[in-house]
Amino acid sequence: MEKAIVFKNIKKSYGSVQAVNGINLTIYQGEFFGLLGPNGAGKSTLINMLAGIVKSTSGTIKAMGFDVEKNYQEARHSLGIVPQELVFDPFFNVREMLRFQAGYFGKGRENYDWIDEILERLDLTEKAFTNMRQLSGGMKRRALIAQALAHRPPIIVLDEPTAGVDVELRQRLWAFMKDLNQSGHTIVLTTHYLEEAENLCKRIAMVNRGKLVALDDTKKLIRKNSAKNLNIKIDNLDEQKILKILKSFKVFIKNEILSISLENLEELNDIIVLLKKNKIKFFDIQTTEPDLEKVFLQMTKK
Ligand SMILES: Nc1ncnc2c1ncn2[C@@H]1O[C@H](COP(=O)(O)OP(=O)(O)O)[C@@H](O)[C@H]1O
Ligand SMILES: [Mg+2]
Predict the structure, then answer these.
(1) Which of 69, 17, 77 minimizes the C-alpha distance to 41?
(2) Ligand 1: residue whose CA is nearest its atom 12
(3) Does 84 fall in a domain?
(4) How many alpha carbons fall within 13 Å on the CB side of residue 256?
(5) Closest residue CA from atom 3 of ligand 1
(6) For residue 226, what pLDDT is reported?
């Protein structure tokens, strides 16, 4: 497999904050890859270093074989990056901005059809002549996604592209990304919607406190971490007490519900016995299939 992006021992510190603390990660061409982690984990810092917006403290990053610092132009050519922050040039209308952007990468009139296709796929055609600063937040987000794609880069990186975006655009965007992935583009995304990542990404990396804490095929990652989820509703839930009683299990408490990730079904019996012995009243016992959210909570607990 050919490499698309390589992060090699990458570190970034802001004063005493170690935003990224030694990450090694290779993403291959043609992958649909998810980069997940809680707020502040270092995802955007990693992406901004790839984009050349932020300079790493140490380590190297390559895109399609080009070092993002030493071969900035070539690396940048192969990347279409949608940053988390909405930054734009207020002087252009949407179509001008896209043509200008592609032109910057040496693409001229031959690329105009592609730009119209992007506008169409992101439902921006009607806004083609609208000035960037007059767009609503959601429309700006679309325009910035379009901007990243304008020069038809082989690698597309989206940092939280669906945060605060309506369902319709989300579906539209993902359908478009799936098509681009089918036609050979490498797609990397970060998202807060774990269900989205679970459905879209073939492989996932999880980061926490600047470090890689998991990296695997999405399905394997979920299967490896738990056999089943057990959800139990408990009367007058006393979090501390329950956590103490069940300290040998992987327990999360959310919305008054105790959620335990089981490694095997025998554990179910052990848990019930423990709860009874400690006179904990419970009702509504349910088992569910494991999902990415549970893995995520486990991996990023500390
Ligand atoms: N420009 C900056 N100056 C100082 N600290 C920063 C800066 N950018 C990010 N950080 C810090 O680096 C850490 C990682 O942030 P970030 O990469 O934005 O995380 P994520 O995108 O995973 O939410 C956080 O602790 C954040 O506060
Ligand atoms: Mg971020």
Answers:
(1) 17
(2) 19
(3) no
(4) 7
(5) 14
(6) 65
- Report the SS3 class of residue 53: coil
Percent of the chain residues topping a pLDDT of 90: 64
Task: Output the pTM of the full model.
Answer: 0.84
pLDDT of residue 199: 93
What tokens appear for 169 in the block? 């655009």
Confirm or reject: Cβ of 30 under 6 Å from ligand 1.
no
Rounded Cα distance, 133 and 145, in Å: 16
Last residue of a domain, one of 149, 166, 182: 149
Q: Is the CB–ligand 1 distance for residue 48 below 6 Å?
A: no
CB 239 within 8 A of CB 212: no
CATH assignment at residue 204: 3.40.50.300
Distance 158 CA to ligand 1 centre (A): 17
Q: What is the mean pLDDT of residues 196-222?
A: 94
Q: Write out the H or E segment, with its range, that includes residue 252.
A: strand 250-254
Q: Where would I find the beta strands (DSSP E) of 144-238?
A: 155-159, 186-190, 203-208, 211-217, 228-234
